Amino acid sequence: MSREVSSIIVKYGYRTLIILSILLAFSTFLLVAYIASKESNAFFLSLSIVFYLLTLILFVGFRLTKVERIHKKYFHTETLVGKGGRITKGVTAGNLGSVTVMNEEWSFVCDTNTSFNDEVVVTQVMDDRVTLRVRKSS
């Protein structure tokens, strides 16, 4: 049985989530510094609020621009079906692995066991649009 990919990772990607997490952590650090300071230093509080707002704006902005526009304009599932690729992380049948297709890394599910460097052919793009169903090449 294949593992489910988190919907937030599908929508934003790992790199975007890392950037947003760093901004959120820095904002929290500033808020804690304000609370922990013995003096009432409004500078930490105001910076914390600014970075929280920046994180929120970027979170929404990445979703509206980067993800949806790129997927709608450039990604068509039929371009991957029938393409060949090489396994970069082999797994047992039905589990989630990694494959390189058209110079891009994708998650995949296969009905047979796979190992590193096996050649496969894409048969379907799953509903999450980031996981491929593949079969081994003869």
Key features of this structure:
about 140 residues; alpha+beta; OB fold (Dihydrolipoamide Acetyltransferase, E2P); five-stranded mixed β-barrel; 3 helices; 5 strands; about 25% strand
Describe this structure in words.
The chain is α+β, with helices and mostly antiparallel strands and 138 residues long. The protein is elongated and about 70 Å long. The protein has a five-stranded mixed β-barrel. The protein has two domains: 7-74, no CATH class; 78-136, Nucleic acid-binding proteins (OB fold (Dihydrolipoamide Acetyltransferase, E2P), Beta Barrel). 12% of the residues are buried. Helices cover 45% and strands 23% of the residues.
Sketch the major β-sheet.
Answer: 5 strands, mixed, barrel
Q: Helix fraction?
A: 40-55%
Low-pLDDT residue intervals, each spanning 5 or more residues: none
What proportion of the residues form beta strands (DSSP E)?
A: 15-25%
Put simply, the count of helices is 3
Secondary-structure-derived class: alpha+beta
On the 0 to 100 scale, the average pLDDT is 81
Question: Strand tally, please?
Answer: 5
Distance between the termini: 24 Å
Strand ordering within the main sheet: 1-2-3-5-4
Shape: elongated
Rounded to an integer in angstroms, the radius of gyration calculated over CA atoms is: 21 Å
Question: Structurally, how many domains make up the residues?
Answer: 2
N-to-C SSE series? HHHEEEEE
